[in-house]
């Protein structure tokens, strides 16, 4: 993975994760656990990708 931030990818992955998280809530009410587990894993992956590709703030303020 590149060391450079990719804001567009981070944005898309954030929204993908949010949509998958909503789907997990819907599935939990109506289907088996294995399906929910797969969606949860996909949502977690999307949020991890979003965090890894987001622009991080300059930490100079911590000094």
Choose one word for the global shape: elongated
Given helix and strand content, the structural type is: mainly alpha
Number of helices: 2
In angstroms, what separates the terminal alpha carbons?
A: 29 Å
Overall mean pLDDT stands at 79
Helix content: over 70%
How much strand? under 5%
Would you mind describing this structure in some detail?
- The chain has 63 residues and is an all-alpha fold.
- The protein is 71% helix and 0% strand.
- The protein is built from two helices and no strands.
- The radius of gyration is 15 Å and the shape is elongated.
- The two termini are 29 Å apart.
Short description:
This protein is mostly helical and 63 residues long. The protein contains two helices and no strands. The chain is elongated, with a radius of gyration of 15 Å.
């Amino acid at each position: 993975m590149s060391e450079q931030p990719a804001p567009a990818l981070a944005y898309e992955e954030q929204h993908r994760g949010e949509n998958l998280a909503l789907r997990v809530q819907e599935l939990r009410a109506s289907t088996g656990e294995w399906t929910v587990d797969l969606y949860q894993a996909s949502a977690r992956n999307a949020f991890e990708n979003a965090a890894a590709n987001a622009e991080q703030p300059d930490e100079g303020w911590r000094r």
